[in-house]
Amino acid sequence: MGIDLSLNQLRAFHFAANCGSISRAAEKLFITQPAVSAQVKALEVKYGAKLFVRGQKGLELTDCGARLHEITQRIFGLVEEADELLSHPESALPKLLKIGSTKTLVRYLLARDIPRFRESFPKIQIQVNEGSSSDMVLGVLENRNELAIVGRVDYDASLKIIPFIRDELVLLSAPGHRLCRKGTVSIRDLTGENLILREIGSGTRRVIEAALTARGIVPSVFIETGNVDFIRELVKMGKAVTILARMGVDRDIATGSLLDLPLREGPFLMHIDVVVRRDKKLSRTAEDFLKVLLAGRRADNKSQRSPVFDNNSYVTPPSSH
After folding, report:
1. Nearest by Cα to 265 from 215, 308, 202, 216
2. Range with the lowest mean pLDDT among 79-88, 163-172, 275-284?
3. Cis omega before residue 219 (within 30°)?
4. Distance between CA 321 and CA 314 in Å, rounded?
5. Going by DSSP bridges, is the β-strand pair 58-61/308-309 parallel, antiparallel, or unpaired?
């Protein structure tokens, strides 16, 4: 059964209830006073419900009228929202920025940058998706993320790469591990060691494998995982060694729970990039976020914080994969 409820009759009732007067409601609606009275009367007759009574101070709502007025406030509030949306679609639509990044970068970089951004743009909603660098780059290609902040991996030619920062990769062990006695460690000393590495697809893994392959070393990787906390704890127990980005282990090194072992062939640097689609114009929201991101890194450089801001220009991927 359909609902035969007149929106015009509801509007006349709503304005009369708001104004407490038929004549003032007519002025607001730009129609005659008899027209407002007729609409309200028709609504009352149709449903057999008394909505107003004449009081000493003018129109007063009955109990039924008061409950209906609560409903019409919601109805015409939504009508106003719909009008605002259709009249100004860009400003009325909620803005959502989808960002992809790795767990380490989210914790140690974006945890500072997102609050900086929200100070200037408090109404912007931000959705952060986490995963390996390769997965987050794929998210940009598939339009699941508008931009990604990732460790450098092999990029598709359809992407624009904005160099962001670079961080040193450090060899880590527990105090008392046999490698500690060597002073300076060679990459070749890792042969036969229990080595925990980040998962395939991470920027860290890419740099390490390139360094090992260049020296003909096949690492004895007995665990690989994207869980950096798990890696750190296992290494602290003396069960293995690992190579991780310094930004995620600075506190462990400072407290002495992990040791940073000097690498003879180092330093090994991981480049961290902002990745966007080349064929798609960034939204204004994404452009504003990128400005905040880059400004924050320049400020960190001036205060001599690490990691180091990369001042290179755009990187063009060499080929399509």
Report:
1. 215
2. 79-88
3. no
4. 19
5. unpaired
CB atoms within 10 A of CB 109: 23
Query: Which range (35-49, 210-224, 236-250, 299-313) has the least confidence?
Result: 299-313
Q: CA 105 → CA 6, 47, 123, 261, distances in Å?
A: 56, 62, 24, 23
Q: Is the pLDDT of residue 1 over 60?
A: no
Neighbours of 31 (CB within 10 A): 16
pTM: 0.63
Structural domains in the chain plus CATH codes: 7-89 (1.10.10.10), 96-164+272-309 (3.40.190.10), 166-269 (3.40.190.290)
Burial class (CB in 10 A: 0-12, 13-18, 19+), 271: buried
CA torsion sign for 23, 24, 27, 29 is: negative
Q: How far is CA 318 from CA 63, 110, 200, 273, in A?
A: 74, 28, 21, 15
Distance of CA 181 to the CA centre of its chain: 44
**Which residue in 289, 301, 303 sits closest to 149, CA to CA?**
289
Q: Is 59 within 8 Å of 16 (Cβ atoms)? A: yes
> For residues 145 and 98, is the Cβ–Cβ distance under 8 A?
yes
Q: Which residue has the tokens 């109805």?
A: 75
| 21, 29, 45 from 32: Cα distances, Å | 13, 9, 20
Q: Are 276 and 147 in contact (CB under 8 A)?
A: yes
Say how far apart CA 99 and CA 255 lie, in whole Å: 33
For 219-241, the pLDDT digits (tens) are 666 677 888 888 889 899 988 88
